[in-house]
Amino acid sequence: MRSHNNAGISSPSKAIHETTDDEWDELCAVNLKGVLYTTRHAFQALVASKGCILNTSSLVGIIGQETPRRLHRDEGLA
Fold first, then answer.
1. 72 neighbors 7 (Cβ within 8 angstroms)
2. What is the SS3 assignment for 73?
3. 59 vs 78: CA distance, rounded Å
4. How far is CA 56 from CA 15, 19, 62, 69, in A?
5. CA 65, 53, 58: angle at the middle one, nearest 5?
6. pLDDT tens for residues 10-24?
7. CA distance 12 to 69
8. Which residues, in sequence order, are CB contacts of 5 under 8 Å at separation 6+?
9. Whether 26 contacts 9, CB under 8 Å
10. What global pTM score does this model have?
11. Sequence-ordered strand ranges (E) for the chain
């Protein structure tokens, strides 16, 4: 068994001083907590099967993005 975590959003794509707390909380909830929750849910099955976890991300985290766009992809468990 393996777990592939690849979900994220890049919005809000605006200056930090224009970003609301709710927008920041949504970004953190998807981009950080999504990996935590998926891994936590699959942990026992992964241990039992000697499986692995593959965490991937978008290139937007490295190069940035000028316009708001949501990136959604959840490979789930295979």
1. yes
2. coil
3. 23
4. 25, 25, 13, 18
5. 10
6. 777 788 888 899 998
7. 8
8. 34, 35, 38, 39, 53, 54, 55, 56, 75
9. yes
10. 0.58
11. 2-5, 52-55
